[in-house]
Design brief:
This is MoaD/ThiS family protein. InterPro entries: Beta-grasp_dom_sf, Mopterin_synth/thiamin_S_b, Sulfur_Carrier/Prot_Modifier, ThiS/MoaD-like. With 100 residues, the protein is of the alpha+beta class. It has helices at residues 28-38, 42-46, and strands at 3-6, 20-23, 47-48, 54-55, 59-63, 66-67, 83-88. The strands form two sheets. The chain has a five-stranded mixed β-sheet, with helices on one face. A two-stranded antiparallel sheet has the order 3-4. The model has no long low-confidence stretch (mean pLDDT 90).
Length: 100
Amino acid sequence: MSIEVRIPTILRTYTDGAKAVDGTGDTIAALFADLETRHAGIQERLIDPAKDNQLRRFVNVYLNDEDVRFLDGISTKLADGDTVTILPAVAGGALEAHTA
């Protein structure tokens, strides 16, 4: 089984700069474990052991454009040919001050 994993810029140091890598696994958790075998350190950036090995708060993961948090989280099932996209959450900014 082959799953394409799209890697955000901030995590490409773990994939030698690759924008996408292939992985295997029947769930998101198994896929991340597989990625860790070839890209040491990446799993720690995605999974929070202090939160029962769930996705880190500021990491979004999409399976074929569906947010896995609305599916089965890291237990979401995968199939051959699926695409998983990892995106860091974006927050912050400032309101622009308006003058009269």
